[in-house]
Fold this sequence. Notes:
The longest helix has 17 residues, at 158-174. The chain has a single domain, classed as Aldolase class I (TIM Barrel), CATH 3.20.20. The chain is globular. Strand 1 and strand 2 form a beta hairpin. The chain is built from twelve helices and 14 strands. Helix 2 runs parallel beside helix 3 (84-99), helix 4 runs parallel beside helix 7 and helix 8 runs parallel beside helix 9 (285-291). 50% of the residues are buried. Mean pLDDT is 96; it is low at 1-7. By secondary structure, it is α/β, with parallel strands linked by helices. Helix content is 30%, strand content 16%.
Amino acid sequence: MPSQATTQLFPKLFTPLKLGAITLPNRVIMAPLTRARTEQDHVPNALMAEHYAQRASAGLIIAEATMAMEGCSSFYAEPGIYSQAQINGWKTVTDAVHAKGGQIFLQIWHGGRTCHPALNNGKQPVSASAIAIEGEEVHTPEGKLAYTVPHALELDEIPQIIEGFKQAAINAKLAGFDGVEIHGANGYLLDQFLRDGSNQRSDEYGGSIANRARLLIEVIEATLDVWESGRIGVRISPLNSFNSMQDSDPVALTAWLAEKLNEYNLAYLHVMRSDFFGVQNQDILSPVLHAYKGNIICNMGYDAQEAEDAIAKDGLAAVAFGVPFLANPDLPERFQAGAELNVADPDTFYTPGAKGYTDYPFMNS
């Protein structure tokens, strides 16, 4: 146990938190991190169980973006939750985390136009509108390839997407997760509907913010048929230009979503506060803090001191850490001790095997 002196370094970060239906021992959240470590058929494996169990001291682990349904691969070796083998594989992960006293949500996800035919048996990707990602390439078994123009989902196809997310929520429960996070961020399918740079529809899923948010809301409502509201989170990134994304008024979009999501009494709203590439630099956190009445988790670029201050002064419930958790399996203990952090190796972020995944040293090793 840390001494009283070291615990007081960041007292707010280490105050327990009631987050919906669960109670967290601390407010140091592990953000979802795509690591592409599955080996066949997108099935989670023993290496992934070891990786997540190493990080069980997080207040909450949010597991990586996981395919809600077949045929929506964006990363070649990311996990799924649509087959029995995948459910079984994830059960080894959740069992390992729970055995270490941790709690873990699954981020359920559809890549939309970030998917590629070379990753999905030739299947054309889908999106809100037939607009391709520009200026970026996707890693495939055939090497780096340009993104393709997606098929704009027809109205009669959208219920299949909603049902796919609902089944993913069912399967996540079968796999032993403590809850789910609906991925509405980073330029993937639900975000492609939310933002007007990728959604140029003229039907009930396009135009106004309420229409563009309709699919996300319908997915939330379908998930509520499976999980109690206190075990569901939602992640958004209204500023992030990753995957060729933009919106004409991200502040208005954010404020509308924050107000609307109050209706569902979710475990949390997870907000990515900035843009990976610095293209958009507006303040979208203030509208959330003003409008949203539930637990707010924020991430992107926080260190321990800023996280402490944001909880103490700004009203955040918790802060999610990505890259620091990638390289520091014992990140909460390091924060408590004021210890130096391991530096992450970007060359191993998406490569197979244990290197750069389960071999980062613990503080006392």
